[in-house]
Amino acid sequence: MRNADNYFVRGSAIVVNLGVDAVHIAQEPRKGIPPLSSTILRECTVEQADALVLLRTDDDVPVAPIVDEPGWRLLGDLLAQAPQQGEGTSFPRDTPLWRSPQDDAGTISFDPAYVLKQTQLPEREQQFQIKVNLWFAPAGTDCAIHDRHDFIEVHTQVHGLGSMQKFSAQDHAALYEDLRMSPGYTTPDPFCVQESDGSYRYPWHQYRADTDCVWLAVEYHAIAR
């Protein structure tokens, strides 16, 4: 959803703020959804927002059949056709990790160094294409430790319980941070920093599914000038 203006959220929904400004809710005291963050809203009004994603789930319905929906693919099959976005040939092809079709959610302008908290004031804005897709993994899945992406990303838990994990090496024994994720939770701040050449440096990290899980990936791809 783009350019929301006094949008009323009927029922209950996970609301993800894709923008870099806070999204305010018409309640007192006047608070909002921070940039690149999310919450669960129920029967209330979002005053204004540049870009939102609304997700509705039913916890009583098994989530695993979602991979039978049109366009869902096992990531190993996708990478067998063409390595994508940093996983490369090291990704274990038999990992039970599925991806939905990826949608474009419009463009946005921001200073990546400011958004990544590497500078106190915005200076040089860039334009980014926002891409979103869902992932599914069954309970107990380690979704592969990796450290390469050519975009800025955040993740929002949609169904089930899981975690985003950081490692000091490509080794499960090197775990140093375990961010527990339940529905409506978005990882606080992107994991990466921007290098001097404009690339992004990530720690070794992975998603782990404690139960059958669905989560949303939001990617910000720099548009070449």
The chain-level structural class is: mainly beta
Residue fraction in strands: over 45%
Which whole number gives the mean pLDDT?
A: 92
Q: In angstroms, what is the radius of gyration?
A: 17 Å
The helix/strand series, from N terminus to C terminus, equals EEEEEHEEHEEEEEEEEE
Shape, per Cα inertia axes: globular
Unreliable runs: 85-89
Q: What are its keywords?
A:
47% strand; 225 residues; mainly beta; 6-stranded antiparallel sheet
Description of the structure:
The structure is a single chain. This protein has 225 residues and is mainly beta. It has 2 helices and 16 strands.
Topology:
Elements: E1 2-17, E2 23-24, E3 32-33, E4 37-55, E5 73-74, H1 75-81, E6 98-99, E7 103-110, H2 112-115, E8 126-137, E9 141-142, E10 152-159, E11 162-167, E12 175-181, E13 193-194, E14 200-201, E15 204-209, E16 213-222
Antiparallel strand pairs: 1-4, 2-3, 5-6, 6-8, 7-8, 8-16, 9-15, 10-16, 11-12, 11-15, 13-14
Short synopsis of the structure:
Helices cover 5% and strands 47% of the residues. It has 225 residues and is mostly beta strands. A hairpin with a 5-residue loop joins strand 13 (193-194) and strand 14 (200-201).
